[in-house]
């Protein structure tokens, strides 16, 4: 698959051949969905917690005599049927993470990239760099390229000025190539890759 390379100013900068083994697969939504579910489950905090009857700070003394009061028999007031008592089978602190094989994760990334390529949602730029860290100027350049909802993937390191200029633009995410992931690719309308990012992806899937 051949795509034209452009600059941030909108000028032509040649072309690049994207390998079909990464960008030319027939997208499978089931594999992509498995990876997205794995990502969302992994980042879920799981810090919700309620107190059981053993954790309630109340006396363990029996409320009143077993017989002779005319009322139902009860033990301590920390049981769940009384106000202020413990909760039965309440949530506890736990991890929501699920397992997903490494090969399936790699395949899901290929299918996500292929889905973007099939929909025409990939733009390749020569480099992600600016002279001055000015958000207004960079937003204007994005407007010329039609980038209003995009994920920008650069090489191993992102230029500090470019990161500073882009971080306040809404619906624009900037990540190094090590941070590329299925969820961020699918949640943004356009995927912007630099030449360095394309080279790194090719080396990664060799």
User: What's the total helix number?
Assistant: 7
Structural class: alpha/beta
Helix proportion of residues, in percent?
A: 25-40%
CATH topology (fold) name of the largest domain? Ribosomal Protein L4, Chain: A
> For the report, how would you describe the main beta sheet?
6 strands, mixed
What is the name of the CATH class of the largest domain? Alpha Beta
- Binned strand content: 5-15%
Shape: elongated
Q: What is the topology, as strand order, of the major beta sheet? A: 2-1-3-6-4-5
* Poorly predicted runs: none
Radius of gyration: 27 Å
What attributes characterize this protein structure?
alpha/beta; 14% strand; 7 helices; elongated; Ribosomal Protein L4, Chain: A; 206 residues; 6-stranded mixed sheet; single chain
Describe the structure.
Helix content is 34%, strand content 14%. It has helices at 20-23, 29-43, 102-118, 135-145, 160-166, 182-187, 195-204; strands at residues 2-6, 12-17, 122-125, 150-153, 172-175, 190-194. Strands 2-1-3-6-4-5 form a six-stranded mixed beta sheet. Helix 2 (29-43) crosses helix 3. It is elongated, with a radius of gyration of 27 Å. The two termini are 17 Å apart. The mean pLDDT is 93.
